[in-house]
Amino acid sequence: MTNWPNWQKVLLPLLPLTIATNLFGLAVGVITPAAAIGADWATIQKRGYLVVGVKDNLPPLGFRNEADQLVGLEIDIAKRLAQELLGDETLVEFVPLANRDRLDALWSDRVDIVIAQITLTNNRARLVDFTLPYYTDGMALVARKGRESDDFNRSARIAVLGGSANITALQYYFPTADLIGVDSYQSGLAALQTNQVDAFAGDRSVLSFWLQSHPEFVAIEQNLAPTSLAIAMPKGLQYQELRHGVYAQIEQWRESGWLRERADHWGLP
């Protein structure tokens, strides 16, 4: 550790000029992450399945269960998209992505879309296209039971992922706290469990799931610095039909309550 409404109305103000022309191709046979090829809608239909970038180590959004199957809220969304757009929820190929590779996977056409805990921001909207949000996340602060928020207005040690946007929020809400940089949720939560730190700050979606199996800890704050998670797609006229299809589905699921129902199923607040 180191010390230190309507989708057009929401998205059109964020849409910049296309910055690159993407290559696309037809994937043949069994697809691996290295071989997966993103494509326009006509090519996807000819190919017969979607290629979706996801997380495989981030419960409850995307992770492997005891049977080594990919499950989670974002996996449910990808399967439902395959059902609605192609007629069968199994017509989807998952490509696990590290955070640093999520946007590059779109630019290099490794995937068709990315559903991998991507926060919708103005800067990212200059580089890729987004749907309406499918979940509103936020920063949570977890600590042992008995601690209160006021405890952290004084001197306290708070672990947080190095380089995380949560650092700015922590400096604002807890200016006297000592922030301890960690390189993963696992190391941050381990530091909390061994009393190396007084609290750990991270995404509410991830920490709420962890708390279900760790009843000796509690969320001190749950909705600091709200963020919106959305599906990322490549820019370019060749991808317009794909984008419109995905936009429409997310908008419909928001209105019908299906997204909220799936969030509830996975224990998301």
Structure description:
- By secondary structure, this protein is of the alpha/beta class.
- The protein has two domains: 5-134 and 230-265, D-Maltodextrin-Binding Protein, domain 2 (3-Layer(aba) Sandwich); 137-226, D-Maltodextrin-Binding Protein, domain 2, CATH 3.40.190.10.
- It has ten helices and 14 strands.
- The chain has helices at residues 7-11, 41-47, 73-86, 102-107, 122-125, 166-173, 185-193, 204-211, 240-256, 258-265, and strands spanning 2-3, 50-54, 57-58, 62-64, 70-71, 92-96, 113-114, 129-130, 135-144, 157-161, 178-182, 199-203, 217-229, 232-233.
- The protein has a six-stranded mixed sheet with strand order 1-11-10-12-9-13, sandwiched between helices. A three-stranded parallel sheet has the order 6-2-7. Strands 3-4-5 form a three-stranded antiparallel sheet, with helices on one face.
- The chain starts with a strand and ends with a helix.
- The model is unreliable at 2-36 (pLDDT under 50).
List the main descriptive attributes of the protein structure presented here.
alpha/beta; D-Maltodextrin-Binding Protein, domain 2; 2 domains; six-stranded mixed beta sheet; three-stranded parallel beta sheet; 32% helix; disordered N terminus
Compute the average pLDDT.
86
CATH homology superfamily name of the largest domain: Periplasmic binding protein-like II
- Tally the helices: what do you get? 10
Q: Specify the CATH class of the largest domain.
A: Alpha Beta
Here the CATH topology of the largest domain equals D-Maltodextrin-Binding Protein, domain 2
- Class of secondary structure makeup: alpha/beta
Assembly of the depicted chains = single chain
Strand order of the largest sheet: 1-11-10-12-9-13
As a percent range, the share of strand residues is: 15-25%
The number of distinct structural domains comes to 2
CATH architecture of the largest domain: 3-Layer(aba) Sandwich
Order of helices and strands: EHHEEEEHEHEHEEEHEHEHEEHH
CA gyration radius, whole angstroms: 19 Å
